[in-house]
């Protein structure tokens, strides 16, 4: 029986989009054929208890390293090779190609027959810097397949690896659970709880960090309120940028029209998407192209919920939008242009219920056609 060793830093209970991607894929593989080797979420009793409780619920074997960050050191590589042999694994899936894919040659010598390395946004950044570009090339040479999220990440990573490695690249984006994210996910109850039942709602679900563009939405609010006066911006998620966002809303005089929910449990996210009339996250590229959006699964989750989307033009975010059909892509920067474009698109949607309905329905159908987890998991099984 061919087993797969998944080697990753990105695994729950550590929160994040990549973590959810890896976990959802692992759950759709045969649990008798999966062994996960992952880092520890965080040190201390609370982190250890949360990790142990999560691991005990999984249908497959999870082995935790003592470190909070796996790196391709000799010790970690020996541990991975030992697990490969102990469990009789013949294939390896690196949850993030960089840097764990550098262990490829050693795991090949230990008996791995198939090596698959998945890339996200940060590998596209690696492709731009000489030192990390060379390491990415080594990963491409030593693995059987490098996967990519969309055209943006594919083109940049392909430029860093050999032509032979580029030819072996296969698209493997995260999927959407269309049974969880759907138009009847409980949005009205969230609106009622927040006192927003009769108000137009623009919702943004994401970590609160500068790249995501929540500040652009706040800067756009004065123009939106001038044309749709009762609009509320519902900011769902937690993160280090919240204090700055609150200060910005105060300085622009729009604080009464912005609601911050803080971090929301994953099980409650579909209802929070459903609380919106429009989903908007005008993400932007930062740090000279080193901080970009890899794909933006939240746009697809919003589409599955039946919402039109307004996305930023950072990295692979446009890959998650059918322009003019499921929503629009706007400039993520500079701030004045981004705010003006975002306001115009959002107002157009808020003022046209039929357009919202049509874009939401097209987005839902697109998710069902292309982005279902089961379809993408089958692609992973074939690669392994």
From TrEMBL:
Catalytic function, reaction form: a 1,2-diacyl-sn-glycero-3-phospho-[alpha-D-6-acyl-mannopyranosyl-(1<->6)-D-myo-inositol] + GDP-alpha-D-mannose = a 2-O-(alpha-D-mannosyl)-6-O-(6-O-acyl-alpha-D-mannosyl)-1-phosphatidyl-1D-myo-inositol + GDP + H(+); a 1,2-diacyl-sn-glycero-3-phospho-[alpha-D-mannopyranosyl-(1<->6)-D-myo-inositol] + GDP-alpha-D-mannose = a 2,6-O-bis(alpha-D-mannopyranosyl)-1-phosphatidyl-1D-myo-inositol + GDP + H(+)
Pathway: Phospholipid metabolism; phosphatidylinositol metabolism; Lipid metabolism
Domain annotation Glycosyltransferase subfamily 4-like N-terminal: ranges: 15-178
Lipid metabolism recorded as keyword: yes
Molecular function in Gene Ontology: initiation-specific glycolipid 1,6-alpha-mannosyltransferase activity; phosphatidylinositol alpha-mannosyltransferase activity
Enzyme Commission identifier(s): 2.4.1.346
Listed InterPro entries: Glyco_trans_1, Glyco_trans_4-like_N, Glycosyltransferase_grp1
Any Gene Ontology CC annotation: membrane
UniProt keywords, alphabetically: Glycosyltransferase, Lipid biosynthesis, Lipid metabolism, Transferase
Database matches in CDD domains: GT4_PimA-like (cd03801)
Cited SUPFAM superfamilies: UDP-Glycosyltransferase/glycogen phosphorylase
Enzyme class: transferase
GO biological process: glycolipid biosynthetic process
UniProt domain Glycosyl transferase family: residue ranges: 194-366
Recorded family membership: Belongs to the glycosyltransferase group 1 family. Glycosyltransferase 4 subfamily.
Name the UniProt record assigns to this protein: phosphatidyl-myo-inositol dimannoside synthase
Organism annotation: Streptomyces paludis
